[in-house]
Amino acid sequence: MLTNLATKIAGDPFVKIKKLIQELIERLLQEAANEGNQKGWCDKSIADAEQKRDYTTEKLEALNAEMANQEARRDTLVEELAELDTEIKQLTKAQDDADKERKKESGENKATVEEAKEGLDAVKQAIDILNKFYKTAAKEKVDLKLVQGPKDDMPDSGFKSGEAYKGAGGEAGGVVGMLEVIESDFVRTVKKTEEAEAQAEDDHLKFSTETQSSLAEKKQATTIKTSQKDDAKQKLSDATDGMKDKSDLLVSTIKELLELQPACIDTGMSYKERVEARENEVKALKKALCIFEAYQKYGADGAGAQC
């Protein structure tokens, strides 16, 4: 009776059940292989995306720091250039004013010297003429034989009777003495004016040398700082463009991570949990298959012992 029953169960339906279990096990194993491949792909894709995200974030931080640095550098150079421009204008104006004042002062000194020299020449000529006159007058004598008439009734003429006129050149404070004082005044004026002119010219030369040296330094500094400012502006522009590119890349990377999340992360169960559940299912199916095969081979009494 039992043999007939075993034979009946082991017929076509039994074979179909064994085949069904085997196919299910194979499918689960294939799914495991597929999921393992997917897990590898997910891990690599997520790792690549996270690496790209971290790299891009670091670059963005570096670019942001570079932008802040170049902005500060640019602003500082703009302020320094403005100060240099003001100083250059002030120095240029000071030089122009000094040149105009020096030209005016030099013209006045020249005119003073020329006038003094002209006056000196005139005084010298006058002194020479008067000296010649007084030297000649000093030699003059009066011939008393030509004097006629009584002398007692003669009015006072300012000189003694019979005395020749010799002029007033010999008197204290005479005209020659006055002219000599004037002559010394002209000489002193020429000397003092020429000395003042020489000193003023020397001072102006010194001032011009210092001013032109300072101007040259500031103009050179302006050229250098202008180049540095242009460099800062170019680097700021490059960093700004880089920020845009890296920001776009970061957005793309985050989007990629979000797209990976449903397939690789938000799956309801972890990969480990699915592997364990699938392995348990395969074990159960294999055990069921073993029971069917043992039942077919040994009958009901020997099936459980074999599996």
Give the topology.
Elements: H1 2-9, H2 12-138, H3 175-264, H4 271-298, H5 300-306
Overview of this protein structure:
85% of the residues lie in helices and 0% in strands. The protein contains five helices and no strands. Mean pLDDT is 81; it is low at 1-10 and 161-165.
Secondary-structure content class: mainly alpha
Question: What spatial form do the alpha-carbon principal axes imply?
Answer: rod-shaped
Characterize the largest beta sheet: strand count, sense, and whether it forms a barrel. none
Total strand segments: 0
Order of helices and strands: HHHHH
Distance between the termini: 24 Å
What fraction strand? under 5%
Q: Provide the residue-averaged pLDDT.
A: 81
Task: Give the CATH superfamily.
Answer: Helix Hairpins
- Percentage of residues assigned to helices: over 70%
Identify the notable features of this structure and list them briefly.
single chain, 307 residues, mainly alpha, Helix Hairpins, disordered N terminus
